[in-house]
């Protein structure tokens, strides 16, 4: 018993011991609520599985892909996640994950409606979102600019990264989505 980490921590610092126990309790509660990714978002960070392919999304303006990889890491991550999450939003028929979660957890229709109005965003138009996204990357948007949201499947073939498939999720010319 005296050689365990928690015992040594307790003897060294009661405050640190309390923090670690509190963290463990919070993590356990999150795990019970199926929210374990809230504490460790990179659970498979050290996985040994081979990456054979992935998907990525880009916004095109007038046929040119908006490149977000040259920004600082925090802005690049924000732009990458924004376009990916908006693509997921379109794929899920303009229903975000919070709406799905509320529907699963709250069965009372009146409470469900009140909570959704208070905590979820309204429906976001593609042209409005695309204009915001382009302007956030520093591109001046003109009234007649054409936007496309494209999802790519990227893989490794013979040691070279290649685009295996692409799908236009939404376009301002057609205003459709899948």
Protein traits:
single chain; 178 residues; alpha+beta; 43% helix; 19% strand; extended
Question: What does the main sheet amount to?
Answer: 4 strands, antiparallel
Globular, elongated, flat, extended or rod-shaped: what is the shape? extended
Low-confidence stretches: 174-178
Question: What portion of residues belong to β-strands?
Answer: 15-25%
Describe the structure.
Strands 2-1-3-4 form a four-stranded antiparallel β-sheet. Among the domains are: 5-38, no CATH class; 53-94 and 126-171, no CATH class. The protein is built from six helices and four strands; from the N terminus they run H-H-E-E-H-H-H-H-E-E. The protein has 178 residues and is of the alpha+beta class. Mean pLDDT is 82; it is low at 174-178.
Topology:
Blueprint: H1 5-12, H2 14-32, E1 53-61, E2 64-65, H3 73-91, H4 97-105, H5 109-119, H6 126-136, E3 147-157, E4 160-171
Antiparallel strand pairs: 1-2, 1-3, 3-4
Helix pairs in contact: 1-2, 4-5
Summarize the structure.
Helix content is 43%, strand content 19%.
């Amino acid at each position: 018993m005296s050689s365990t980490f928690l015992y040594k921590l307790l003897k060294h610092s009661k405050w640190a011991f309390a923090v670690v126990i509190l963290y463990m309790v919070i993590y356990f509660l999150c795990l019970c609520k199926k929210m374990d990714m809230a504490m460790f978002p990179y659970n498979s960070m050290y996985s040994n599985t081979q990456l054979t392919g992935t998907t990525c999304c880009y916004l095109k303006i007038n046929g040119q892909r908006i490149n977000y990889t040259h920004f600082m890491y925090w802005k690049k991550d924000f732009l990458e996640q924004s376009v990916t999450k908006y693509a997921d939003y379109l794929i899920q028929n303009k229903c975000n994950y919070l709406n799905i979660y509320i529907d699963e957890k709250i069965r009372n229709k009146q409470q469900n409606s009140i909570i959704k109005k208070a905590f979820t965003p309204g429906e976001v138009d593609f042209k409005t979102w695309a204009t915001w996204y382009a302007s956030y990357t520093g591109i001046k948007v003109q009234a007649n600019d054409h936007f496309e949201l494209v999802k790519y499947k990227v893989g490794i073939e013979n040691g070279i990264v290649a685009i295996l498939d692409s799908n236009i999720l939404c376009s301002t010319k057609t205003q459709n989505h899948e």
